[in-house]
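2024-03-11 09:14:02 DEBUG pipeline.ingest accepted 1 chain
2024-03-11 09:14:02 DEBUG pipeline.ingest length=575
2024-03-11 09:14:03 DEBUG pipeline.predict start
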Amino acid sequence: MASHYEAPIRKPLVLGDRDYHDVSVDIARPVETRANRQWWIVFTIAFVAFLWGIGCIIYTISTGIGTWGLNKTVGWAWDITNFVWWVGIGHAGTLISAVLLLFRQKWRMAINRSAEAMTIFSVVQAGLFPIIHMGRPWLGYWVLPIPNQFGSLWVNFNSPLLWDVFAISTYLSVSLVFWWTGLLPDFAMIRDRAVKPFQKKIYSLVSFGWSGRAKDWQRFEEVSLVLAGLATPLVLSVHTIVSFDFATSVIPGWHTTIFPPYFVAGAIFSGFAMVNTLLIIMRKVCGLEAYITVQHIELMNIIIMITGSIVGCAYITELFIAWYSGVEYEQYAFLNRATGPYWWAYLLMMTCNVVSPQIMWFKKIRTSIIVSFIISIVVNVGMWFERFVIIVTSLHRDYLPSSWTMFSPTYVDIGIFVGTIGFFFTLFLLYARTFPVIAQAEVKSILKSSGEKYKKLRDAGQPLYQIQKTATIREKVAEDQSLPSEGSKKEVADLLGAIGVFDAKRETPDDLKRIKGIGPQMEQTLNQIGIFTFAQVGKMTEKEYNLLDSITGSFPGRAQRDDWAGQARGLNNSK
């Protein structure tokens, strides 16, 4: 089929002998089955860390910011380091979803959903730190530009800190809508497969009445493109504005015009590393190796390698400009980073961010799952130390040697940071148990061009509709003499391909006689074809009605006149 042609040299993005039904079953399995032991172990650790963080936050708010390691010289440290780090991690989700959608990159299909979720959860963590740093969060309304009893206490709209508020809140809003829009077809798939009435009602509610009509898909694609167009400049603007927190100041080490592109590259760098970390874990725990393939990991490693090289160039540029400027304070700030008391943090930053990604030039290494996992963690450690080095080493030694001091985090600082990591993983693990972690509809859209099974059929010169599972059903139907026309193999395959194949191990047959127009004989005929549930009948359209009439040869037009599909959907929803 010309519309599904893809060069044989391209590696498949969906491995194994999988068809459309298999995609639905595999992606719905983590939601429909019980959590395994590994999930509970990881969730318990993450939740304990989250509770520890909550305790440290309560202690901080009830006692005061003095519980942190800040002092008069280093007024910003651990909190802003963590804030910038979390915002950076949130970048890759929107990049994968929006930018790669606009560039029509097929490899985004299996990883964009988890990347989008990661964006939401990481921005939530980032938002916690400015709120806590206010010291008295219950007086937070003072910073709002509203008339109040304190006279002219108004927000300084010239402050980049306020630009941060608008940029990140906009980023979060657009990312959230983009994420939820993409989930609608998947929620509808879980809704249609749900057996328990409560589960069916919940997924019916969150799917916003998705029916899978052509109009639904048209609007879905239009909205996705519009949101992608809005989100793409946000990818660049958000961390650019975060960099302005430092670049618009006059402090040596911060007053650097290269910060905006350097921060954006670093954010994408750390974001892709975190996506890699999460996907490598999830593909193993959820058994999704066929969809999150080594090819996906390799492509993300290439982006990590490229952005790591950009970050390395930025580091060198900073050093060159500090030397070339002739400003002794600027020169000392960078000399102090490399040779001062925090030299070890600078060394870690350079090793993790510049040296470690360069091993990805070797294909054998960037296609190794273990090495990819280790490098992803190393990169995120290095990016945290980058933010720490920029913030703390630029502050702890200023113009007056008499005010020089050191910063050391307290157990409260560390506890809050560990708590946000626990909160992040708690949210992500709950997401993996309640939401489809892969966009099944989007994976199906590339199945015939990038699925291993279909690529083999195409290479062998065979038609793509020759699928083993449906062929077996067709053969059974053809052998059954009770069907008047004995059923065309292709027609039965097309019908079941459109309405879904009944899974006897997981699904329970419905009493189809409750549908007006279906008697005992017609129910038996439908069962012999492979139709057992209201959900299958509810998916019928005029095309499927005609196929059914052609197969059975009984009462042409009866199903459409009696609206079997409408009746079945009503019965299915009332179960």
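2024-03-11 09:14:41 DEBUG pipeline.report Residues 61 and 136 are 7 Å apart (CA to CA).
2024-03-11 09:14:41 DEBUG pipeline.predict end
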